[in-house]
Amino acid sequence: MHYPNITPAVFQARPNRFVAQVLLDGQPVTVHVKNTGRCRELLVPGATVWLTRSDNPKRKTAYDLVAVEKGRHLINMDAQAPNKVFAEWAAAGHFVPGLTLLKPECRHGDSRFDFYWEAGARRGFVEVKGVTLERDGAVYFPDAPTQRGIKHLHGLAACLAEGYEGAVCFVIQMAEADFFSPNDLTHPAFGQALREAARAGVQVLARCCTVTPDSLTLAQKVPVRL
Question: Residue 154 — φ and ψ, nearest 5°?
């Protein structure tokens, strides 16, 4: 996926979950943050961030903040991007062979999953999670407690008993990582639910991305440590 009209800026502050204050060409500007997560380790004063300018003149904010530089890492933090790059990757034949249907936002039982797919006689559901939390070369999810994430894992496990396949794909929004693990320090219940889902037969995928200021593409597999 690609972003139009990309430009660098310097992060200053985040008054709330939805907006940030940056310096753009030395001038203070309020921009929309395309991620309502905490991202405290990313959005620090002085960090270089990347903005995409909207062509909608009716918007209150002209720019969206979509990426940030953290040391040697360029990290995409657009919360909508993981689903988009997964869909592109799956449509290109990298998820399951012979894919004939990939339908977003499908409800099954009391859960709404990111994708429902079909390939011949096979069918299944996929939940996609974006990962931006990095520590000492490893990456972790979630960066804040997520009861919704636990519900999705339980739902995927329940689907298996009905003949569906189930998978959760952790899209790591940076170019490299030593391994992926659940963030038991922040939300041990999510880690427990992920391990239970894996034991039940839910496939756990983790992949890094090729990241540039104006693009994101799903890339190489990353080891999963549960």
Answer: -65, -40
Alpha-carbon distance values, 92 to 26, 95, 163 (Å): 42, 8, 25
Q: How many Cα neighbours within 13 Å face the side chain of 120?
A: 3
Residue 204: name the closest of 138, 162, 146, 156 by CA.
156
pTM recorded for the entire structure: 0.95
Average pLDDT over residues 24-41: 92
Residue type, 36: T
Return the residue matching tokens 């990298």.
Answer: 94
What pLDDT shows up at residue 36?
Answer: 84
Q: At residue 37, does pLDDT exceed 90?
A: no
**Residue 159 in contact with residue 193, Cβ under 8 Å?**
no
Rg (CA), the chain: 18
SS3 assignment for 88-109: HHHHCCCCCCCCCEEEEEEEEC
β-pair type (63-70, 48-53): antiparallel
The β-bridge relationship of strands 63-70 and 27-33 is parallel
- At 156-179, the pLDDT tens digits run 999 999 999 999 999 999 999 999
